[in-house]
Write a structure and sequence with these properties.
Structural class: alpha/beta
Low-confidence stretches: 201-207
Number of helices: 6
Radius of gyration: 28 Å
Helix content: 55-70%
Order of helices and strands: HHEHEHEHEEH
Number of strands: 5
Distance between the termini: 34 Å
C-alpha cells in the first residue's frame, strides 16, 4: 500500500498532467475553427475541378491524344500510396485509422501480385508503417516547420508525385487522408488521383445538359488541368487532415482531462481513507497508553 507521501505526490502529478491536457484541449479548440473553415472552403473548388475533368474526359472519350494522367499507362502492376498523417501524436486514433486503411489497401494490392511504393506525408504515418512496410517507403515529406498550410506545400508534394510518374515508377496513385465530419468524427478516405477517377454518370448533378466548345483544345486544357488537379486534391487532403487532427486532439484531450479528474478523485479518496486510518490508529495507541498508566 502506498504511503501518504506517495499518494500526495501522485495526486500532484496527475493534477499537473490535467493542466497540460486542459491547455492542449483549449489550444486545439482555438486552432480547429480556422482549420475547419479552410477545409470547408476547399471542398467546392475541388468538387468543381472534378466536374470539369469529368466533362473533358467524356468529351475526349478514348482518343489517342488523351494524357496518361487521365487514361493511365494501361497497366496497374505498380501502385504508389500517398499516406497523409499528422506530425504529432496525442490526437486519439486519428493517425492509426489512416494507417489502418492504408495497410488494408497494401495487403489487398500485394495479394493481387502487384508492387507497392509508399510516400509518407507526415512523420506519424512513417512511424506506424515502417514496422511492417519499411522497405516499401520511398520517401517521407515532413511538414513539421509549417505553421500555416499553403498551396505551395501541396504543389511540392504534387511535383514529387508527377516526377515519379514521369519516371515510370508507378501506374496508379492513391491518396489517403481523413475527411473532417465533426469534432468527434473523422472518416479515413482513399482517393485515386492517377489516373483520374471520373465520377459516374449517375452521380452527376441533375439538370439540363449543355454542349461546351473548348478554346484551346481539350488536349491542351487537360495538359494544364490534370497536374493542377493533383495539387488541388493534395491540398484538400492536407486541409482536411489539419481540421481532423485538431478535432481529434480536442476530443482526446477532453477525455484525458476527464480521466485525470476521475483519477484525482480516486486517489484523494484513498488518501483520505488512509489518513483517517492512521489518525484512528494513533488515537487508539494514545488511549491504550493512558489506560496502561
Amino acid at each position: 500500500m502506498p504511503s501518504l507521501k506517495d499518494l500526495r505526490n501522485r495526486i500532484a502529478s496527475v493534477k499537473a498532467t490535467q493542466k497540460i491536457t486542459k491547455a492542449m484541449q483549449m489550444v486545439a479548440a482555438a486552432k480547429l475553427r480556422r482549420a475547419q473553415e479552410a477545409a470547408l472552403a476547399a471542398r467546392p473548388f475541388s468538387q468543381r475541378m472534378d466536374a470539369v475533368l469529368a466533362n473533358l474526359a467524356t468529351a475526349m472519350g478514348n482518343l489517342p491524344g488523351a494524357p496518361q494522367l487521365l487514361t493511365g499507362t494501361g497497366s496497374s502492376g505498380s501502385h504508389l500510396l500517398v499516406v497523409c498523417t499528422a506530425e504529432r501524436g496525442l490526437c486519439g486514433a486519428f493517425n492509426a485509422s489512416i494507417a489502418r486503411l492504408a495497410r488494408e489497401h497494401i495487403d489487398r494490392i500485394l495479394s493481387e501480385g502487384n508492387s507497392v511504393k509508399i510516400l509518407c506525408v507526415g512523420r506519424k504515418g512513417f512511424d506506424i508503417l515502417k514496422r511492417n512496410y519499411g522497405r516499401m517507403i520511398i520517401d517521407t515529406i515532413e511538414l513539421r516547420g509549417v505553421r500555416q498550410l499553403s498551396f505551395a506545400n501541396a504543389r511540392a508534394i504534387a511535383d514529387r508525385i508527377l516526377g515519379l510518374f514521369d519516371a515510370a515508377e508507378f501506374d496508379v496513385c492513391t491518396l489517403f487522408y481523413a475527411e473532417f465530419k465533426s469534432v468527434i468524427t473523422q472518416v479515413p478516405r482513399a482517393l485515386q488521383i492517377i489516373p483520374v477517377k471520373v465520377a459516374d454518370e449517375g452521380s452527376a448533378p441533375a439538370g439540363p445538359g449543355a454542349v461546351y466548345e473548348y478554346e484551346p483544345s481539350e488536349e491542351e486544357i487537360l495538359a494544364d488541368l490534370l497536374p493542377r488537379n493533383i495539387a488541388v486534391q493534395v491540398f484538400r487532403a492536407l486541409l482536411e487532415n489539419a481540421a481532423s487532427e485538431q478535432g481529434a486532439r480536442m476530443s482526446a484531450m477532453d477525455n484525458a482531462t476527464r480521466n485525470a479528474g476521475d483519477m484525482i478523485n480516486r486517489l484523494t479518496l484513498s488518501y483520505n481513507r488512509q489518513r483517517q486510518a492512521q489518525i484512528t490508529k494513533e488515537l487508539i495507541e494514545i488511549i491504550s497508553g493512558a489506560e496502561a498508566l
